[in-house]
Amino acid sequence: MSEKSPADLQAAVDFYLAEMRAGDFDSAAHGLLCFDPGVVPLLCAVFDQQTSEDSRCTLMRIAREYRLDTALPMLEAGLRDRRPDVWKAALDGFVTVASPTALDSLQSFAAEAAFSGSRDADFIDWVREAIQQIEEARAARPAES
C-alpha cells in the first residue's frame, strides 16, 4: 500500500474518480486499493455526490476491502439508495466489514425499516440475511481481546 501526504492522497482520489466518471471502473478500483486505509474517509466524503449506480457500487466495493468501520457511513448511505444493485453492494460491504459496529448499525437499520414500513419485505429479508451472515462470521472468529 502506498502512503501519501493528505494533499497527494486527495489528488490521487480525484484522479481515480475522474477515471470512474469516464467509465474506467476497474482501473479506478485497482488504483484506489493501492493506498493506505486513509483513503476510506475520502471515498465516503464523495459518495453522496455520485449519482451513477456503477460509481456508488464501485466506491463501496473499494471501501469494504479495507474492512474498517470508517466505511460504515458510506454503506449506510448505500442502504438508503432504492436501486437494488446499490443497496445489495452496501449489504455486501456490511458483511465484509463484519465488525460489532457494522452489526449494530445493520440491526438498527433493519428495525427502523421494518417499523416504518419504508421498504418492502424483499429488502428486509436481504438485510436480515446479511445480519445472519455477520453473526455467523463473528461466531466463527476467535474471541476479540
Summarize this structure briefly.
The chain has 145 residues and is mostly helical. Helices cover 73% and strands 0% of the residues.
Helical element count? 8
Shape: globular
Strand element count: 0
Provide the residue-averaged pLDDT.
Answer: 92
- Report the radius of gyration as a whole number of Å: 16 Å
Helix content: over 70%
Strand content: under 5%
SSE arrangement, N to C: HHHHHHHH
Largest sheet features: none
**Terminal residue distance:** 26 Å
Helix-and-strand structural type? mainly alpha
Q: Which stretches are low in confidence, meaning pLDDT under 50 for 5 or more residues running?
A: none
Could you walk me through the main structural features you see in this protein, from its secondary elements to its overall organization?
The chain is mainly alpha-helical and 145 residues long. Helix content is 73%, strand content 0%. It contains 8 helices and no strands. Helix 1 runs antiparallel to helix 2 and helix 4 runs parallel beside helix 6. The longest helix is centred in the last third of the chain and has 20 residues.
Name the features.
145 residues; mainly alpha
Strands, helices and their partners?
Layout: H1 6-21, H2 25-32, H3 39-47, H4 53-65, H5 72-80, H6 84-97, H7 100-116, H8 121-140
